[in-house]
Amino acid sequence: MRLALMAALLLSATVAGAQSPAGVLIAGNKRANTASVVDLASGRTLAELPTPAGPHESAVSGDGRWGVITGYGTQQPGNTLLILDLATHSAVRTIDLGEYRRPHGIAFLPGDSLIAVTVEANQAVLVVHRERGVLRAIRTGEQSTHQMAVRPDGAVGYTANIRSGTISEVNFATGAVRSLAVAPEVEGIGVTPDGREVWVGSNTAGTISIVDVTAWQVVATLDQGERPYRVTISPDGKLAAAALTLRSRIRLIDVASRQEVALMEAPANAQPVGMTWSANGKRLYVACQGINAIAEFDVVARRLVRTIAVGDGPDGVAVAERR
Q1: How many other CB atoms are found less than 10 A from the CB of residue 226?
Q2: Which residues, 6 or more positions from 32, have their beta carbon under 8 angstroms from its beta carbon?
Q3: What is the pLDDT of residues 172-215, one digit of tens each?
Q4: What's the CA gap between 129 and 132, in Å, rounded?
């Protein structure tokens, strides 16, 4: 009986281990001015690295080798990016953006040598080389160009311009920009993998506006009942997730029908903010600044799996999975 029980426990552990993600997670901790590098399988912190002031947003390269953290600043505007080597769990380079200040929304572009980042104070988006620094500045001309979602092919990005209540489409190669009035105080933003729709949340209206990119107009408005602080689309384009910060919940919405399919509860007082998906879309990682942790949700089961302790005030979160 004891041998049978031990065998059953071993099998359970093996199955659980097989289902656990492999790779690392990085989180920018705004109040601590650090970046946590965490082993996904075990939840163990591999490194807690000093960052420039106000590390708001994070991104990882497509090959999983590099991470980047924005130095947004606090009272004094920041103007740096911190490059992380995720193989050695170390910070390897600080990129000085010079006159460009308040870097925020960020993403690696295909090929992993170029990074697109918004600079809120300059009403612009930068294209930055991972080693050589700023290559190009593209002005949106909109106030508080803050969050950004990049189409998977890396050709264009969409910015949420908070004070203007607009979104901007930015072509990284040509520098072409077009903007659209959407809703007051837009911030959370996601783009579907096929590039057909942009979903953007309004902090004051408590809504998500859906923009048809071809028609370049708002085609639907979804009432969330509170501020959808962050909005993101799953890798397969089937689900949208909205971080409902005030009540510590995550709403899952079917993209095709635009109907809610689940309302997942985060821990009490979690204050969910930044979010990212696993590559297969089965896990959602949510930075919870109220409890200094990352909440991992099983999207298929629609439930919280675990919380992973990180530094003080996590916001931007990104995942680099092993391949």
Answers
A1: 15
A2: 311, 312, 313
A3: 999 999 999 999 999 999 999 999 999 999 999 999 999 999 99
A4: 5
